[in-house]
């Protein structure tokens, strides 16, 4: 089965693209969903996070205070690395297990930190959602209701755009309308279906 890793910068449209692919009844394995499940209060990862960062990352209801944790890791590279050391191995294990259990002709592994977490080896192809930097900044500020400085910190904490593009096999440019995005996803869906059917992963991608 063909495993396609979907990644891209923050606010580049990954969630929308994932939703569009799901309309073709293709299995979607979402690293963000896995991460949320891993940090539930009854999970070992949650306990390790609290032991590492203290009670300030626990909300009044006993669950993870994501806002406090996000502020902490975006301002402290060492703290960010500690969190990744807790979560990334567990996320990787779940991605591998769930992809092995897939029964669709191909599957999408939506992994925002595919490059940063060194997970390119668990997929056959990488598709990147790309967006103009100015548009990305504007969308992120509006989406999260944050300042430009905070948004830039989030963007700069991730793999830079150029490096992400160098490891991509396919690109989805998300600077235009939803209709153009749908058209590009439709093209890639049929392409991946053909690849998976023929097991010819080295065919040139449509551009």
Number of helices: 9
Structural class: alpha/beta
| Uncertain stretches of 5 or more adjacent residues | none
What does the main sheet amount to? 5 strands, parallel
Q: Radius of gyration, Cα only, in angstroms?
A: 18 Å
- Provide the β-strand percentage band: 5-15%
Strand order of the largest sheet: 2-3-1-4-5
Number of distinct beta strands: 5
How much helix, percentage-wise, in residues? 40-55%
CATH class call of the largest domain: Alpha Beta
The span between the termini is 23 Å
| CATH fold group of the largest domain | Rossmann fold
Give the overall average pLDDT. Answer: 93
Shape: globular
- The CATH homologous superfamily of the largest domain is termed P-loop containing nucleotide triphosphate hydrolases
CATH architecture descriptor name of the largest domain: 3-Layer(aba) Sandwich
Q: N-to-C SSE series? A: EHEHHHHEEHHHEH
Number of domains: 2
Describe the protein.
By secondary structure, the protein is an alpha/beta fold. It has two domains: 122 residues, 3-Layer(aba) Sandwich (Rossmann fold); 73 residues, Rossmann fold. The chain is 53% helix and 13% strand. It has nine helices and five strands; from the N terminus they run βαβααααββαααβα. It has a five-stranded parallel sheet, with helices on both faces. It is globular. The model has no long low-confidence stretch (mean pLDDT 93).
